[in-house]
Specification:
Layout lengths: L1 H24 L23 H7 L3 H10 L2 H4 L8 E2 L4 H4 L1 H8 L7 E2 L6 H4 L19 E2 L11 E2 L9 H5 L9 H8 L6 E2 L12 H6 L19 H6 L1 H5 L18 H8 L11 H19 L2 E6 L2 E6 L5 E2 H16 L7 H15 L6
Antiparallel strand pairs: 1-2, 3-4, 5-8, 6-7
Length: about 375
């Protein structure tokens, strides 16, 4: 037993001695020069950035204040009517536009709400990128008429702005021009047409004017420009003019949707005091008045003078020559466009010059 204990003692002493020898052999030397710093890591995204872009710095309140001046907020197209029909709610109520954007069946809406942020924008559903995107962005049909089976579309997006197609969903014709309507319905005689109180594009056909399509292109000496070729479509766009940086002094641009004179002047390189650039709107107003008065003379339109001024309406007691019905459609539609040619100068001038020339050949009633 003693021999065994003595053996392990010697073994332990040997191991301790070896460890001392190893420690003596691995003694550290002087410190070397410092190495280069490693690359910084990538910062994580700010989880509140998408919130603060609207909810801080007064951004949201400023947009709401601008929107207050918009016809979309306080105009006749929204809450002035307590109950829109199923054919109206798509563009005349917040709830109806959401139904349309979601592809749901349109239903009448009682006690409708005014347009709001969530009418055009999707609101806080996933908080993922694009959560606040516009609800619609694709090209739209040139007409919403059930008689139109062509499937023709117009794309109002361009290199710098893809948002104008949202506007076009409501600001387009709901009807076909009379000749195309008659052909689509396969009526027996397309040389005559009976006007109605609904003849003409619906109240906001601006997208069709900008794109240059959908009106009655009566033959004449002036060539109609190719659809989609307008410089205002390809260089400016709906939002480029109507949602330019907000000008507080003139209350235009931004979410007022009122066209920005400053933006137009910048694009054209001029300093105009109004939108009558080069006298275009003056010319178009003269052509519009000429066409209106001629339509009254030939019996395609009636004129009634009242306390609020002259009121013009379609003559509806009998069928009239098709070309006269087309002329009324153009006059009524361009009146509803309200840009006096600014949306598409070449197209509007061609429509009016050719239409007026044709009406001068029509006999007075």
């Amino acid at each position: 037993m003693k021999k065994t204990r003595l053996f392990f003692q010697f073994v332990g002493i040997g191991i301790f001695t070896i460890s001392l020898l190893i420690a003596g052999c691995t003694k550290e030397g002087p410190m070397g020069a410092a190495g280069a710093d490693g690359l910084d890591g990538t910062d994580g995204s700010d989880g509140t950035a998408s919130c603060t872009s609207c909810h801080e710095s007064g951004v949201k309140k400023a947009i709401e204040a601008q929107f207050y001046f918009s016809g979309h907020k306080r105009g006749e197209m929204t809450a002035d009517h307590s109950d829109w029909s199923t054919s109206c709610v798509q563009c005349h109520s917040h709830e109806g536009f959401l139904q349309y954007a979601d592809g749901a069946t349109l239903t009448s809406v009682a006690n409708i709400r005014d347009f709001e942020c969530g009418t055009c924008h999707s609101i806080h559903e996933s908080f993922a990128p694009g959560d606040y995107a516009l609800r619609l962005k694709d090209a739209v049909l040139t007409s919403t008429s059930s008689d139109d089976k062509s499937g023709a579309t117009m794309d109002l997006s361009n290199e710098t702005n893809a948002n104008s197609n949202l506007c076009a969903n409501c600001h387009r014709t709901r009807t076909l021009e009379p000749l195309k309507e008659a052909v689509a319905k396969e009526v027996a005689d397309v040389t005559v047409y009976k006007l109605s109180s609904r003849t003409g594009p619906h109240h906001g056909p601006q997208a069709n004017v900008v794109y240059g399509v959908g009106f009655a292109e009566i033959a004449g000496d002036v060539t109609y420009p190719t659809a989609g070729a307008s410089i205002h479509l390809n260089k400016a766009s709906c939002t480029g003019c109507h949602m330019a940086p907000f000008d507080a002094a003139k209350t235009e641009g931004g979410h007022t949707y009122l066209p920005s004179l400053k933006e137009c002047n910048t694009c054209h390189g001029v300093e105009e005091a109004n939108f009558d650039h080069g006298g275009l709107q003056t010319l178009i107003a003269q052509q519009m008045d000429m066409l209106r008065d001629r339509l009254v003379l030939i019996g395609a339109m009636t004129k009634t003078t009242g306390v609020d001024g002259d009121v013009y309406a379609a003559y509806t007691s009998a069928a009239i020559p098709m070309v006269q019905a087309q002329a009324f459609y153009n006059w009524n539609g361009l009146r509803e466009d309200r840009s006096m040619g600014a949306h598409n100068p070449a197209y509007v001038k061609a429509l009016l010059l050719n239409t007026n020339a044709a009406m001068l050949l029509e006999p007075v009633k």
